[in-house]
């Protein structure tokens, strides 16, 4: 996941000009365009357009001056656990609080759903650390939940479980967790 390099500060653009809202189907192509540069740099895994449409309800977008400048998703994994996924910010607004605002929105959505833990698999450890995430090496779920999650066809769940067949997707990423 790619996010702002710095938290918002007094030099950031006027935060009132930034709106974070649930994504709509009309945002999907803009989301794909935001994600694509990070796919080319091998920071994010590519997503087919159909996959983005299927998951649009998981996403929020950040808008500034009527333009989508960021996107990110919350994927529910289990009754108490969700994953922050696919955070991408337009290059022109990196460091302006866009990633921070989207992550806050996703955390609020997670709390509203009753989740108590958030997971992420990221290269952006400094960003997530500033937001209360800590690195984890051990299994985050017990054996019974692991046995259920391993049945999921979702590739992100396989990455969370650290299954061997997805290791090439996760090389260099750090597993992080936050308690809400």
Report on this model:
The chain has 180 residues and is α+β, with helices and mostly antiparallel strands. It contains 7 helices and 7 strands, in the order E-H-H-E-E-E-H-E-H-E-H-H-H-E. It has helices spanning 28-40, 49-54, 98-113, 125-130, 143-149, 155-161, 167-170; strands spanning 18-22, 59-64, 67-78, 81-89, 117-122, 134-135, 174-179. It has a 7-stranded mixed β-sheet with strand order 1-2-3-4-5-7-6, sandwiched between helices. The longest helix is centred in the middle third of the chain and has 16 residues, at 98-113. The radius of gyration is 16 Å and the shape is globular. The two termini are 20 Å apart. Keywords: Acyltransferase, Transferase.
Shape: globular
Give the number of DSSP strands: 7
The major sheet is characterized as: 7 strands, mixed
Taken in chain order, the helices and strands follow as EHHEEEHEHEHHHE
Mean pLDDT: 89
How many angstroms separate the termini? 20 Å
Proportion of residues in β-strands: 25-35%
Helix content: 25-40%
Radius of gyration: 16 Å
Main β-sheet, spatial strand arrangement:
1-2-3-4-5-7-6
Low-confidence stretches: 1-12
Structural class call reads alpha+beta
Discrete helix count: 7
